[in-house]
Amino acid sequence: MSYELNLEQYQGPLQKLLELIEEKKMEIMVVSLAEVTGGFFDYLKKLEKAGVSHSILADFLVVASKLILIKSKVLLPSLPLTDEEELDIRGLEGRLKIYQEFKKAQLHVKELWKVSPQMFSREYLMTKEATFYPPKSATGETLAKAAAGVVGKLEKFLKPIVKVKNEIIHLKQKIEEIFRRLTEIPIGFKKMHEGKGRSELIVLFLAILHLIRDQLISADQEAQFDEITIARKPKEA
Amino acid sequence: MERNNNTVAALEALLFYYGEPLDAKKIAKFLDVSEGECGILINELDSKLNSDEKSGFMLVRHGDLFQLATKPDLAWLGQKLVQEEFKEELTPATLETLSIIAYLGPVARSTVDYIRGVNSSFILRALLVRGLVTRHFQEARKNMFEYKVSFNFLKHLGLGKIEELPEFEKYKNILTSFEASQVPENPLPENQENPV
Amino acid sequence: MERNNNTVAALEALLFYYGEPLDAKKIAKFLDVSEGECGILINELDSKLNSDEKSGFMLVRHGDLFQLATKPDLAWLGQKLVQEEFKEELTPATLETLSIIAYLGPVARSTVDYIRGVNSSFILRALLVRGLVTRHFQEARKNMFEYKVSFNFLKHLGLGKIEELPEFEKYKNILTSFEASQVPENPLPENQENPV
User: Cα separation of A18 and A40, whole Å?
Assistant: First the structure.
């Protein structure tokens, strides 16, 4: 399925977030973002199941990673965030507000588009009795060089999709890895990401969320500020 | 070459031939007349077309630009002939992207991506192909494209210039009105633009 | 809206906007008049334009086809316009379009647009006016134009036939394979050249 078709069929991540927040009749705030994280991941999962293109999933994962950051901060207020992450959180809030505003601007364009124009002009140089006016220095080589340029650009345009694909594969591998590492004896989340980078942490968190949703692992938190512990669910008999 | 009242005819033929709007300076240079004379010719053509009931078109002025266009009472005819790309309904994604470009243009793709929260390279490509937006290199950064809505799109909306969009100022400044947000250079996985 | 179907003005507007030659049958259909009435309107427009010294154009008849064109004594205008409008050397975008037509031609505008990722109608028009490419209707789809490099331009390049271009097979194959793999599931709207 092509990207554009997908795009028309599914909502974008900001659109979905806004819808979730508006459904709950909440204002756009950090806390309400944390509130709708679950709903957002449900939607993400639905998209994955429907087999939408990797480029779309990538757009959702960018937002998802920010939501996880927000959710973690709300669950674990002691979690230290870098300045950049703080900005990210505020940024998402701001972006949603801008997105909400632009939804109103769209109505203007929609209305104007509907009204058929009253006057029509001609196309550029429409009556074309051709006058032969060739570029002096052009040769076959000039055209060949231009054709090489066209081919090069096409290849560049089509390539980045592979990169996105790799990121998704990375996430899938991570899920499998975590599942292998987990035993039925609970371990702390902190311990799992000790010595790992931020981006690794986000992938880890995403992976855990996936596993929880698939009901393959369970996560517990004794009290609000306690460590989250994760364990593999006992195999059902 | 004979000139005299033939020059009204030449002006008419020039505008007819060119199709797109032409500014007075270019017209004067082309017809080899002074700008003053050019103004007289323009007025003469204008009143000739207006008074001729058998004429199907008129002179339209947008600022300093002049163009021939069919008379408004013949709109029904144009609507029969209007090109497919302007007849089709706008899909939600198309409308969303077009609105952002209309109000914020000229605008970089990274900003469109930032507001929409999705990678817009494919939809931008589709809009370019459909002729609803145009792009050109930024002044400051020669390897970055900027997008704006096409002249044809404006014409279809019945706008002489982009500033005539409803609430233009409000939305034009929307990015700066939210202090918390900063448009990052490349907020999303970059699909490389096609450098021309 | 008042439908002044029977007026000469509507006929003039139709030919003005449509641009390409139209046959009497189609004209009658568009204006919603009988073919007899249509003939009368055509004669009336013809004599109106001929007798108006301030008019820059005339009705041209090729067999059953009718078209508005600039008057013969204004032919210098078209020549001058081409030279003023175009720089002698081709811009990168024009060269790019020309190379796609050269290696892939005869090729539809929608394919050129698709490969370039932008609307090429302006550039194609310019290439036509400069006589570097020609177009004709496709065999299979009569309402779609195909473009190819003009014989004059080939000669100018010093080539006997298009296949003599450097690495002709290579680029033709790459572009064709792109076209074949992408165009069928291409969700972009087809740009019809002429909305009839």
Answer: 10
pTM, two decimals, is: 0.70
Contacts of B43 in chain C (CB under 8 A): none
The DSSP string of C23-59 is EHHHHHHHHT--HHHHHHHHHHHHHHHHH-TT--EEE
Q: Give the number of A-C residue pairs with CB atoms closer than 8 Å.
A: 124
Residue of A nearest to C91 (CA): A135
ipTM of the complex: 0.69
C chain contacts of residue A124, beta-carbon cutoff 8 Å: 121-122, 125-126
The burial of B195, by beta-carbon neighbours within 10 Å (0-12 exposed, 13-18 middle, 19 or more buried), is given as middle
| B71: its two tokens | 């008379």
Nearest to A212 by CA among A24, A68, A31: A68
10 Å CB burial of residue A156 (0-12, 13-18, 19+) is middle
Contact A144 C167 (CB under 8 A): yes
Q: List the beta bridge partners of residue C70.
A: C57
What is the rounded CA–CA span in Å between residue A226 and residue B71? 75
Q: Give the C-alpha separation, C157 to B28, whole Å.
A: 36
Strand order from edge to edge, sheet including C145-149: C107-108, C145-149, C133-137
Helix (H, G, I), strand (E, B) or coil at B23: strand
b/e A30-52 (16+ beta carbons within 10 angstroms → b) = eebbbbbbebbbebbeebeeeeb
- For A:208-237, CB contacts with B below 8 A are none
What are the tokens at A193? 């990401």
Q: What is the pLDDT of residues B74-93, one digit of tens each?
A: 888 877 877 666 777 788 88
Residue given tokens 């074309």 in the structure block: A128
CA distance A157 to A161: 9
Q: How far apart are CA C41 and CA A102, in angstroms?
A: 50
Whether residue C189 and residue B76 make contact (CB cut-off 8 A), yes or no, is: no
Q: At what angle do helices A37-49 and A198-213 cross, to 10 degrees?
A: 80
Rounded to whole angstroms, the Cα distance separating A70 from A73 reads 5
Nearest-neighbour CA in chain C from A142: distance (Å): 8
Pure H helices in C52-91? 75-85
Range 96-115 of A in CB contact (< 8 A) with B: 97-99, 101-102, 105-106, 108-110, 112-113, 115
Q: Which residues pair with C107 in a beta bridge?
A: C147
Sign for the CA dihedral angle at B184, B188, B189, B192 comes to negative
**Complete DSSP assignment for B42-75:** HHHHHHHHHH-TT--EEEEEETTEEEEEE-GGGH
Query: Which pLDDT tens digit goes with each residue over C133-187?
Result: 999 887 776 667 899 999 999 999 999 889 999 999 999 988 888 776 554 333 3
Structure tokens belonging to residue A30: 């950090």
- By Cβ distance, the residue of A63, A121, A156 closest to B117 is A63
Q: Which parts of chain A are beta strand (E)? A: 187-188, 217-221, 228-232
